[in-house]
Amino acid sequence: xxxxxxxxxxxxxxxxxxxxxxxxxxxxxxxxxxxxxxxxxxxxxxxxxxxxxxxxxxxxxxxxxxxxxxxxxxxxxxxxxxxxxxxxxxxxxxxxxxxxxxxxxxxxxxxxxxxxxxxxxxxxxxxxxxxxxxxxxxxxxxxxxxxxxxxxxxxxxxxxxxxxxxxxxxxxxxxxxxxxxxxxxxxxxxxxxxxxxxxxxxxx
Length: 204
Known about the structure:
Layout: E1 15-17, E2 24-26, H1 30-33, E3 39-45, H2 52-59, H3 62-65, H4 90-110, E4 118-121, E5 126-127, E6 139-140, E7 144-150, E8 157-159, E9 161-162, E10 169-171, H5 176-187
Parallel strand pairs: 3-8
Antiparallel strand pairs: 1-2, 3-7, 4-7, 5-6, 9-10
């Protein structure tokens, strides 16, 4: 969104309040705004891989993905040129994700299963701070956000932050290996002996 950034960086969507004081998300996620107390937003994820498949393997190592149920949602590419659309495409894709993610959190919470289930929403990278000449944004792995819920993670919190235009992490930078370690902890999987610690601050 970057609502206070210059016009070449600021997106078309406005922030809305959530049910957690001080946390705002995009207006295209109104239902998720009512469930911000159930998920944590990690705003300072970064790596340096710029292609889809390679970046996905960095974000979610194959040995870990084999133990997960992965739901892939397409149409987030907004380069601005065909066959990709502009940022207006998010007015169509956003509500679909809003409904799916919110419904899952609602169902798990209602059934008392959210505490036992780790629900992660993430892409393989983010989008460029600058809007390109075609009216879209391109691949940007240097700073982006993900959502984590359940599995002992305390909802209603934001971990890390970006700089003013969302180009680089400002504090608490998070690597993909740290995300993987956190997922393992949330799922009760034996940690990998790679020297990387999970984000323990996220847990209740």
